[in-house]
């Protein structure tokens, strides 16, 4: 499927990405060098264990990062949104990809060669600072997630996740908040770290409490206060 | 527009020194139909092929540079490209090619 290449200067995420501090000339260089592709839902950008040869910048859509257990079960470790970059940790640590990146929905993704990125950073050190900021933010989120696993029970973890989705993907619609992200129950269960049956049980409880509702695969937050109460968040 | 033959010679002469070597232990879609490849490829071991109509696979020959025209001139691939288990390839990035080679008529 042909994707019309969007110049970095005209990108909707300009201002949110690691390239936002670049001057026009350098940004034009990035624009000329990058390759933009569309990934349909379910298509894979890179595979866990492969060596990185470039960096991916998400223009639109959502990408899930999964790790596969020794039993072959996939767990979602992160969902990447527009403006964020992928593959940068492996690129600078000379490590192989530690997760598989797959399109959660139809997504437009820009790819930039590793060698070009390295040259760009030498000439524009501000990119390093932006990358450090993104890595630091991601590290903080991981620390919070680890703490949640030890300190919160399933109900609280699920409520926290739904509140996080509300903040990141919530769209106000007819008096409630539609969550603009579609995950299967198995995928949600893997994020929370529970069996699918357990997730379904708690989701039903949240619906009965009036915290959330569902229409088909679309979820709505009906009461943020109720979710906070269920999640023991004050 | 770069002359393809010059580029191919350069790639094959510098295979071990310049390009990223990748091994696959599982079947994997490297690129998808309609995408511009993010690297040219040289297959050195195993099997890689173009998937036609979701069924048949036309295998790519080893030790040849493929997708160089698509990479340099941003052309879309006409088929999914699949690698099979126990396959090793070299991935040739566009930036290095543009930096190292002089464009010819």
Could you explain the architecture of this structure?
The complex is a heterodimer of chains A (234) and B (105). Chain A has 234 residues and is α+β, with helices and mostly antiparallel strands. Chain A contains eight helices and twelve strands. Chain A has a four-stranded antiparallel β-sheet with strand order 1-8-3-6. In chain A, helix 6 packs across helix 7 (196-208). The longest helix of chain A has 26 residues, at 126-151. The radius of gyration of chain A is 19 Å and the shape is globular. Chain B is of the alpha+beta class and 105 residues long. Helix content of chain B is 26%, strand content 34%. Chain B has helices at 4-13, 15-18, 68-73, 94-100, and strands at residues 20-24, 28-31, 40-45, 48-52, 56-59, 65-66, 80-83, 87-92. In chain B, a hairpin with a 3-residue loop joins strand 4 (48-52) and strand 5 (56-59). The chains are: A alpha+beta (234), B alpha+beta (105). Chain A binds chain B through residues 1-2, 5, 33, 35-40, 43-44, 47, 49-51, 53-54, 111, 113-116, 119, and chain B through 20-22, 24-26, 28-29, 32, 34-36, 38-39, 74, 76, 91, 93-96, 99.
């Amino acid at each position: 499927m042909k994707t019309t290449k969007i110049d970095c200067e005209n990108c909707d995420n300009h201002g949110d990405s690691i390239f936002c501090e670049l001057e026009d000339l350098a940004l034009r260089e990035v624009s000329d060098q990058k390759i933009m592709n569309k990934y349909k839902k379910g298509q894979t950008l890179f595979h866990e264990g492969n060596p990185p040869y470039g960096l991916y910048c998400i223009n639109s859509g959502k990408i899930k990062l999964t790790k596969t257990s020794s039993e072959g079960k996939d767990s979602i470790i992160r969902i990447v949104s527009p403006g964020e970059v992928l593959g940068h940790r492996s690129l600078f640590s000379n490590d192989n990809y530690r997760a598989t990146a797959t399109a959660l929905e139809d997504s437009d993704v820009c790819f930039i060669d590793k060698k070009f990125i390295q040259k760009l950073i030498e000439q524009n050190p501000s990119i390093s600072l932006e990358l450090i900021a993104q890595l630091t933010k991601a590290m903080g989120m991981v620390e919070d997630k680890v703490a949640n696993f030890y300190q919160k029970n399933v109900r609280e973890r699920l409520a926290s996740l739904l509140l996080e989705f509300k903040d990141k993907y919530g769209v106000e619609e007819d008096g409630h908040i539609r969550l603009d992200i579609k995950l299967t129950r198995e995928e949600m269960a893997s994020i929370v770290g529970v069996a699918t049956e357990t997730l379904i049980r708690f989701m039903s409880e949240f619906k009965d409490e009036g915290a959330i509702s569902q229409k088909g695969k679309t979820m709505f937050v009906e009461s943020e206060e109720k979710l906070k109460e269920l999640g023991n968040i004050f | 527009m770069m002359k393809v033959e010059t580029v191919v010679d350069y790639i094959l002469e510098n295979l071990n020194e310049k390009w990223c070597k990748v091994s696959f232990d599982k079947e994997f879609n490297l690129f998808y139909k309609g995408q511009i490849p993010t690297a040219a490829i040289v297959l050195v071991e195993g099997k890689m092929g173009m998937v036609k109509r979701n069924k048949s696979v036309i295998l790519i020959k080893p030790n040849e540079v493929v997708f160089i025209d698509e990479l340099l001139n941003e052309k879309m691939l006409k088929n999914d490209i699949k690698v099979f288990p126990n396959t090793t390839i070299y991935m040739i990035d566009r930036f290095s090619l543009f930096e190292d080679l002089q464009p010819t008529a």
